Amino acid sequence: MKAVSSSVRTAKTPAGCIEYTLERKKVKNINLRVRRDGTVYVSAPSRVPVREIESFIAAKCSYIKQAQEHFRSRTETAAKERRFAQGAAVMHLGRPMELCMVQSAAESVTAEGQRIVIALRDSSDLTRAERLYAKWLDGRCREVFTNLMREIYPQFAAMGVPFPQLKIRAMKARWGSCHYTKGMIVLNRYLIEAPLHCIAHVVAHEFCHFIYPNHSRDFYSLLDRVCPHWRSDKAELERLVVL
């Protein structure tokens, strides 16, 4: 579906002013969604007047505020869980792991059972330990994401898609993006916290954008074909990993 127009507006509601992004699209009804970052997105047919849209938002204001508070609380909880400390719990490929700093003449980071062991000369030097862990995690992201891209790619090679470049970034509002004109996929560093099948659905999603650089019906038809369980994978990912 091609957007006719997009604008950022503010609606007055019984719960106070609510800023929202309005997209005019070829849809039958007014649709409202609160995103994980707390922003409000509304799509509506071009024929529906703004006053009717804002009446709809006002009627949904309690739900909007509750959803925004829910996402804010989840984000704060995730930030606390990601604090770096001896014995802290971190998620890695869908499994809870314990950070363990140990003293050693040789520096290394290894995953051992339910622990991620960080060996360094001074086990109390959390700044150095965190740097070692971050470097190791970046390597794990590149290894895991690249392997998944190689597994999924043959389906798209048959459609004439060149194997894309991979970039990894820490992002707060999306799991990935496709720069189809540059032949590049960007994946969120936090995906490494999720099970492999959840990461795979994001990779498949971004590959589909090389064929359909939008979220049209054809795009979702292709995604259904290459990743039939993407809806449940997406729901699980959003339940397990908070951006």
From TrEMBL:
UniProt-listed InterPro entries: UTP_pyrophosphatase-like, YgjP-like_metallopeptidase
Domain YgjP-like metallopeptidase: 28-239
Pfam families for the chain: YgjP-like
Protein name per UniProt: YgjP-like metallopeptidase domain-containing protein
